[in-house]
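agent> fetching stored inputs for the zinc ion docking request
agent> found them:
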Amino acid sequence: MSCRTYICTRCHSARRAEAAGGLKTDLRCAGCSGPLWELSPMCRVPRKSDTKSWKKLAEAVCRSAPAMESFIRRRGRELLRQIDRETEAFSAHEPSSLREETLKDLKKERERVLKRYAVGGYTLE
Ligand SMILES: [Zn+2]
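agent> prediction call returned; pasting tokens
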């Protein structure tokens, strides 16, 4: 698994965690419990006291967020359509334990996508 840096622009703090590719995570700032921003590997974390650089970084992160979020929601909707197609196809099969198991897995996967890809305060449906 690759790691990314997550920052809290309020506390000027950073931590490393598994990359989420912009998806929703449960990661919270240890200082203020606020949400953390996942940084691109190209970004450097300023010194805690470098207020000017932190302000710039916060602005850059805010600017890029809407495009990134819309991209992720689009990907999420594609995944939902794919899951729905598979669900439909499997529903047409003869009843069997494999069919039930697969439908259950697809339902779980759908809920996971709905939760993780609904970024930026939008729902996917
Ligand atoms: Zn914080």
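agent> quick read of the result: The pocket of zinc ion is lined by residues 8, 10-11, 13, 29, 31-32, 34 (CB under 6 Å).
agent> awaiting further instructions
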